[in-house]
Structures are given as structure tokens and as C-alpha cells.
Amino acid sequence: MADTGHQRALIVVDVQNEYVTGKLVIEYPPLATSLANIAKAMDAASNHNVQVVVATQVLDQDAPVFADGTDGANLHQSIAIKPCSQLFVRNHARLFCEPTLVTWLQANSIETVTVVGYIAQTLIDIAICDAIRVGFKVEFLSDAGGSVPCRNRAGTASAEEIHRVLSVVLHSSSTAVLLTDEWIQMLDDGMCAERDNILNSHRRALLIRAQRISAETPER
Question: Which CATH number does the domain housing residue 185 bear?
Fold first, then answer.
């Protein structure tokens, strides 16, 4: 599908030391993989005149994570050294509820936001939902983001399970989920991402299930 010339921004969400050496270390994809892909996406964005927005979350000094003045609140060095169009610092989770960011994106005629960073199952998911709600098209680079495992009264899930399921759900809900290399190739070719919806995703799942059952059923 050819790109219609709409404006895009790469949003780098909370690539801070808390997720690298702190209390919420990313497990899937492997941290080295996601950090390298985030840096690669930032370089590609700069090469294609795509605006790069870096966002961080800095909380009160007594907060258990991302506390102001701590190393955990600092940008990871691999990201801090990269040029960006804008740096937004907030003291809450919801990035696209920040009027300054939304106003800046709209003032720069941004129509599509490509989201990378941490943490996929909370901040990235919230950011994507909020971005769609305020009218942006959204892309998520799944290998340039990361998740952590969780256990609570609802059950237990590994980081890999959480990341895979979240990616499937996002792509079935109008977010284009891509790998970093696919996104860079898309920029090189002047194309735009293919999108999906819940109906088509559901139909494919039913078809695959029916084919599996048919293959497992012995002939009479």
C-alpha cells in the first residue's frame, strides 16, 4: 500500500534505567534486542525526516520507581545520546493525556505515531489506546518494546506470553504491529503499514482451528 504522504512521528516511551538495571528489568524481547532496535528505529527516523519524540516519566522523590533524582529515572545512555525533536517529561503514566505533547504533534501535522519503548503491558498499551482516542493512527514496533512477567490473584504470565498476546490484540484493534526492520523497509519504500481488525483476525483464527481439527480427524 503506497504511503499517502501523511506525517509520522516516532514516540520513544520511557527507555529509562529502571527497566534496564532497576526494579522493572525487561525480560522479553531480550533487553539487548529491544534497546538495539529502539536505537535503530531512532536512526532510521532521523534519516527519513521523521520527527523523534522522547518521553520519560519522573515521579516524586519518595516514589518506589522512577523517583526524581535517582539513576532509575534517567534515560538509558543508548537513547540519551541520540538526537530528538522534542523531550517530554511527565509525572504520570498517561502520555497522550499530556496536552503539551498532543498540541505539539498536532502543530507539526502529525497523523501517525510509531510507538516504541517500555513497558508494553501498561504504559505502551495505555499510550496506544489514548493516541487512537485523540485521533492518531498508530504503529507499534514489537521488537523495539518490552514486557516483564507478572503474577497476581488473576494468575501468572511470562513476559513472552504477555508480549505476544498484547501484540496480537493490538494488531486486531487497528494498530499496525511491525518489526523494526519491516518498519524501516516501509520507510525506504515509501509505503504505509497494513492494518487489521477484530473480525478478520477472528475469521483467520476460526479457519486455522478448523484446518487443524480436520487434519487431526482420522478418515473413516
Answer: 3.40.50.850
Residue 6's pLDDT is what? Answer: 59
Between 99 and 189, the higher pLDDT residue = 189
Instruction: Report if pTM > 0.85.
Output: yes
Cβ atoms 26, 34 nearer than 8 A: yes
> Residue 112: beta bridge partners?
8, 137
What are the beta bridge partners of residue 151?
156
Q: Residue 9 pLDDT > 80, yes or no?
A: yes
Instruction: State phi, psi for 75 to the nearest 5 degrees.
Output: -60, 145
Distance of CA 151 to the CA centre of its chain: 22
In sequence order, which residues have a C-beta less than 8 Å from that of residue 198 and are 6 or more positions away? 172, 173
**Domain hosting residue 167, numbered range:** 7-216
Neighbouring residues of 18: CB distance < 8 A, sequence distance ≥ 6:
24, 65, 66, 72, 73
Residue 60, burial from CB neighbour count under 10 angstroms (0-12, 13-18, 19+) = exposed
